[in-house]
Write a structure and sequence with these properties.
Length: about 160
């Protein structure tokens, strides 16, 4: 979890800029930097900035949209398992993922240039549509290797994105 409002208040108060490099859901470890701070070097302020990042073992849909896409893909993949063998569920999930990805792309396409930036002292890498696409489609295509009906649906999805 990244507490953006907490970080923004600290950055404003101390005339700092925070460059967040690890997004929620990313695998992190002790040697990995999750953010860089410019304009402040006081240890007590840096400690307060660190408190704006909460790490743990659980992901959430609210903080991590890629997690939602991954869960959708896992539902489809489990439906394709030999124990379940339900290609219809996988096809329905593909349709859901396509609608979600189109809505995500449309939302960013309609973003208004010049709109006020909510946290001007925080810089965060964008969530890229191709990352969402790659989280869903290649693993599902692999899991559906012997399911023609699922691959037909995947081809239709690819065609929709290509147009």
């Amino acid at each position: 979890h990244i507490d953006m409002s907490h970080l923004s208040r600290l950055a404003e108060k101390h005339n700092a800029v925070i460059y967040i490099v690890a997004l929620p859901g990313q695998f992190i470890y002790n040697a990995l930097s999750i953010a860089y701070v410019t304009g402040v070097s006081e240890p007590e302020v840096l400690t307060r900035i660190r408190k704006g990042f909460i790490t743990g073992t659980e992901r959430s849909f609210r903080q991590d949209p890629r997690f939602g896409i991954t869960v959708l893909r896992e539902i489809a993949s489990r439906a394709l398992s030999p124990a379940v063998n339900d290609g219809g569920t996988a096809v329905q999930v593909i349709g859901t993922a396509v609608r979600i990805l189109f809505l995500w792309a449309k939302r960013h396409e309609l973003a208004q240039p010049g709109k006020a930036i909510l946290y001007p002292r925080l810089h965060v890498p964008p969530l890229r549509i191709d990352d969402l696409f790659n989280d869903f489609f290649p693993p599902l295509a692999r899991d559906a290797a012997n399911k023609v009906e699922v691959h037909v649906c995947l081809q239709k999805a690819y065609t929709a994105f290509a147009s």
